[in-house]
Design a protein that fits this description.
The complex is a heterodimer. Chain A is mainly β. Chain A has helices at about 1-20, 70, and strands at about 40-45, 55-60, 65, 80-90, 90-95, 100-105, 110-115, 125-130, 130-140, 145-150, 155-160, 165-170, 175-180, 185, 195, 200-205, 210-215, 220-230, 230-240, 245-250, 255-260, 265-270, 275-280, 285-290, 300, 310-315, 315-320, 330-335, 340-350, 350-355. In chain A, the strands form eight sheets. Chain A has a four-stranded antiparallel beta sheet with strand order 3-2-1-30. The longest helix of chain A is centred in the first third of the chain and has 20 residues, at about 1-20. By secondary structure, chain B is mainly beta. Helix content of chain B is about 5%, strand content about 60%. The interface between A and B is large, with 53 and 50 residues.
Chain lengths: ~350, ~600
């Protein structure tokens, strides 16, 4: 009968296309490795598609594995917006912003051990002290809090609410240091951004209460980054003319200021081997942390980078991720942090936002 | 002889490629007066309400299985956007009774929130339709048209359907007409729990996927005097969608929208002249809830006041001139988007000159200039020719320059909105070749589109996204179609098969655009014997990239989905039917990670009074 004939034609052509489209592209094998022997890379993923996952590159940069969460957990979806990864003991904590959860995996195998969801609302960053961990939550509206969890059984301990957005959180000198600052924009183009307050809040993990609030000088500069190094917290702020690094003593709340004169809009700050590394647009600078001389020439001038997203310096290597237009895999470049020479580059996942020493 | 009759003459002269709707033009009043003229120069695929009932879930499904459009849907019934010929959703115009109803905020039509049970004819057109439908009509247009009959007395019908995943669909329609007056009312209510499972696709469950929508449509026309008619149509739509989440812990979100569209038309026809004056009001309201239990987190209201005059005059029996003037006021008020008290005046003037050289050869040239307040827009141009070369071969050429101006979000979103954006401008060309062989109609249409100044939202170093004019896109490909209809005794066989090849390249990266399949096939075969009817429909979608760098491992695998249905009509007015969708349990996605349902069923009853 005619219908059958036409149908079989349709099927035949469907098969034809299937064959025509079959692909012989290289598909990466995932040999079992101990992920503790390398760098863990977080791929934030899309907002509406759950493309978050984790990449691994070995210390010698010889082995790259993308999608190690799915590969080691029966192809399970991790979710969307992997904000950050924290490490404690044998575990890695994957903080998932949009799904409101933290996936705890074994840091050697990346197999899932536990999922934390209690009281999470748009979790952002994580820090550890003693047998507790601390997670900021920020929904850019009403939720501005730090959640405290017991690390032994992952039970929720309490929330500490703030007046302003709770963003980055680090442990420094036995204290929990929280970036409590937000940004608001002018209502007319070019929509200049302003800080809502420039405060850093210090929480005592012994009492789980706020011990101090540090008011950084208001230079119209917004807090862009917060890192911990040798017991001190370092906050980065920047505006259109200068950038500033504040070295904060978490015990007293006192701080020293390093002014990066004439280097505006520094976005990211990392510290490795007593050196600051910071980025303004496509220029990566380094500077000794005890120095007061501002560098005039960059260590590296990045070329062909559309959207510098993830950035870190780990054991003398500088990692930079270009998220491009967030619609394709990011490109990671690894440089020698001392002389700026390019060591390697490779593709990871969508919106690579962080590099971590495992 | 009035203009409709002379048009009718033209139509019957070219009757070989006109459908039934057009032949009956003197007894059926179609609200969009331009669509019949468009069909003189362009290939338009018409989907009847009866055909649409095969895919009664939503407009996404209807277009996916019955047209060449690619529909990207974030789960069944959720957010959905179209792509014609490799262009974007903003480059597709949804036209309701001649009025562009794309959202002023997003610049695109929200496919699953467009009421489609109430229309009388759904016209799908790939490529530009010339200058008539304005901004955004670059890749193609979807026309939701209503019509009114005269001298048909009283009619009423009821359609009621129950389907898998607790889906219920009800539609009622009543109409009355005599020789001077016509009235029609229809109402539709659809709802679905929509909790389907696709274990094979990472144990997917369509959590938080429920939706419901309500639609009312009222139309009336009255012949007030010889040569004069007043017509009115109003539509209300109310949609509630929850957006699917991948895991239970995700924050569940939902979206609600309420739309009103109203149109008043005064038709004045004399022997050589026809003038159509239209006054319209369209209103869109939407609210997004970033947590289903909390108050809305963002939203907006857009109102458009439209006056349009369409003057058509036959200078001689061969030369026809058409002048269309339009004035619109667009108002928008956003909630949590920084769009405050936006009001924009838009005027436009279009001229079309048609030349009917012989009964087998005709041309149309069009020009349009938009005057958008505070904004410069290019002059649009179009040229079409249609030639019956021999009885079995027809050649149809279309060349057009058109554009899309930025949406209110593009211009005014805070922070980020960019009032310095240029419109996206497109140049396009297509050449339709239509062959009639042994009662079958084969259409082959190669096309080429070049679009400059594509508007893309990119993150800037200030920490927010902002739209900018970026790359150029070049699309080319082939639309092809075979249509065949045969009646023998009590048997009727109707076939409509389409295949599209689409190459759409970002000229900056030289890569295929996301979510543009190279190959798409759709087919519908209907067979009727006396009171029994069966149909099968199939859709093949080739490999589809889900990123901008043609990454093979994250691309959507090719799929073939087939649906079928059977119905029987008893005691003349009672039709009972059943459908099986996705017979072969194909696992398929149109948006990465959001599989659509496996095999599912529906039964329905249709009663005519």
């Amino acid at each position: 009968m005619k219908i059958r004939k036409i149908l079989s034609l349709a099927f035949a052509s469907a098969l034809l296309f299937n064959v025509a489209c079959s692909d012989d592209e290289f598909v990466m094998e995932a040999p079992q490795v101990d992920y503790a022997n390398g760098i863990i890379i977080s791929n934030e993923g899309g907002f509406s598609t759950p493309t978050s996952d984790v990449s691994y590159v070995s210390n010698d940069l010889g082995i790259l594995q993308n999608g190690i969460y799915a590969a080691n957990n029966n192809n399970e979806i991790l979710g969307s917006v992997l904000q950050t990864i924290g490490f404690r003991g044998d575990y890695a904590y994957l903080v998932m912003n949009s799904p409101n959860k933290i996936e705890i995996v074994n840091k050697h195998t990346f197999r899932k051990q536990a999922t934390v969801t209690s009281n999470l609302d748009n979790p952002r960053y994580i820090a550890y002290s003693g047998n507790q961990y601390f997670v900021t939550n920020n929904n850019f509206s009403t939720v501005k809090k730090l959640n405290v969890y017991n690390a032994n059984d992952n039970s929720f301990v309490k929330s500490i609410n703030f007046d302003r957005y709770a963003e980055k959180v680090v442990e420094a000198g036995g204290n929990i240091v929280v970036q409590t600052d937000g940004i608001y924009y002018d209502s007319a183009p070019p929509y200049a951004g302003h800080p809502t307050g420039n405060t850093i809040t210090i929480v005592n993990p012994a009492t789980n209460a706020v011990s101090k609030t540090v008011d950084l000088p208001n230079t119209g500069a917004i807090i862009k980054d917060l890192v911990s190094y040798n017991g001190f917290a370092y906050a980065l702020t920047s505006n259109d003319t200068n950038s500033y690094i504040y070295k904060i003593n978490p015990a007293t709340g006192a701080f020293d200021t390093v002014t990066l004169t004439a280097i505006p809009q520094v976005q990211k700050l990392k510290i490795d081997s007593d050196k600051f590394y910071f980025v303004n647009n496509s220029k990566v600078y380094s500077m000794n942390i005890s120095s007061t001389t501002v560098p005039t020439t960059p260590l590296i001038t990045l070329t062909g980078v559309t959207n510098l997203y993830g950035f870190n310096v780990i054991d003398g290597r500088l990692y930079v991720a270009d998220a491009k237009t967030f619609t394709s895999d990011s490109k990671v470049s690894v440089y020698n942090a001392n002389n700026g020479s390019l060591l390697s580059s490779f593709n990871t996942g969508i919106a690579t936002n962080g590099f971590y020493k495992n | 002889m009035d203009i409709k009759k002379s048009l009718l003459l033209i139509f019957s002269a070219y009757g070989c490629f006109l459908s039934a709707q057009e032949k009956a033009i003197d007894t059926v009043y179609v609200f969009d007066n331009q669509i019949s003229k468009v069909k003189l120069f362009h290939k338009v695929n018409t989907i009847s309400p009866e055909d649409a009932q095969k895919n009664s879930t939503n407009l996404s499904e209807t277009l996916r299985f019955q047209s060449q459009v690619y529909i990207k849907e974030n789960g069944r019934g959720a957010a959905s956007s179209p792509s014609f010929r490799g262009t974007t959703a903003q480059q597709t115009a949804f036209v309701w009774n001649g009025i562009n109803i794309n959202s002023q905020f997003l610049g695109q039509g929200d496919v699953n929130n467009i009421p489609f049970m109430g229309f009388d004819q759904l016209d799908v057109k790939s490529g530009s339709v010339g200058v008539v439908y304005g901004s955004g009509a670059i890749g193609g247009t979807v026309h939701l048209n209503n019509s009114l009959d005269f001298n048909k007395g009283f009619h009423a019908s009821l359609f009621s359907e129950a389907a898998s995943f607790s889906t219920y669909n009800n539609f009622a329609k009543a109409s009355f007409s005599n020789d001077k007056f016509s009235f029609k009312f229809s109402g539709n209510y659809s709802e679905s729990e929509n909790d389907y499972k696709v274990e094979e696709s990472r144990n997917y469950i369509n959590r938080n996927g429920q939706y419901s929508n309500t639609n009312f449509n009222i139309a009336a026309a009255y012949k007030i005097a010889p040569h004069h008619q007043l017509s009115w149509i109003t539509e209300f739509f109310n949609g509630n969608q929850h957006f699917p989440v991948f895991l239970d812990d995700y924050t569940k979100t939902k979206y609600e929208t309420q739309n009103v569209r109203s149109l008043l038309v005064w038709d004045w026809n004399t022997s050589k002249m026809s003038n159509v004056f239209r006054a319209a009001y369209t209103e869109e309201n939407f609210q997004y809830f970033d947590h289903i239990d909390y108050p809305k987190s963002s939203g907006g209201t857009g109102k458009n006041y439209i006056l349009k005059n369409d003057f058509n005059y036959f200078l001689t029996s061969k030369w026809n001139i058409n002048v269309i003037g339009e004035f619109q006021v667009n108002k928008a008020e956003g909630y949590m988007s920084g769009i405050k008290g936006v009001s924009r005046n838009v005027g436009s003037l279009a001229g079309l000159l048609r030349y009917f050289a012989t009964k087998d050869l005709r041309f149309e040239a069009g020009i349009k200039k938009d005057f958008v307040e505070d904004y410069s827009s290019p002059v649009l141009l179009s040229f079409s020719g249609n030639w019956n070369v021999v009885t079995w071969y027809n050649l149809n050429l279309n060349i057009a320059k058109n554009f899309r101006y930025p949406s209110f979000n593009d211009l005014y979103w805070r922070p980020g909105g960019n009032i310095d954006l240029k419109p996206e401008t497109a140049y396009q060309f297509d050449l339709k070749n239509q062959f009639k062989i042994a009662g079958a109609k084969l259409t082959l249409t190669p096309y080429y589109i070049r679009i400059t100044d594509m508007i893309t939202w990119l993150p800037g170093n200030m920490g927010y996204y902002s739209p900018v004019n970026t790359y150029k896109v070049q699309s080319y490909g082939l639309d092809s179609q075979i249509e065949y209809e045969k009646k023998f005794g009590k048997h009727t066989l109707k076939t409509n098969l389409g295949y599209s090849y689409t190459k759409s390249i970002n000229l900056l990266t030289e890569k295929q655009l996301m979510y543009v399949p190279l190959h798409k096939f759709f087919g519908n075969i209907d067979y009727r014997y006396s009171f029994m009817k069966i149909y099968v429909q199939g859709m093949y979608n080739g490999l589809t990239y889900a990123d901008t760098e043609e990454k093979r491992s994250s691309a959507l695998e090719p799929y073939f989905v087939m649906n079928a249905g059977v119905s029987g009509t008893f005691l003349k007015n009672y039709t009972v039917g059943g459908k099986v969708n996705n017979i072969f349990n194909e696992i398929y996605q149109t948006t990465a990670f959001y599989p659509l349902p496996k095999r599912n069923y529906s039964i329905y009853l249709n009663i005519n009074f």
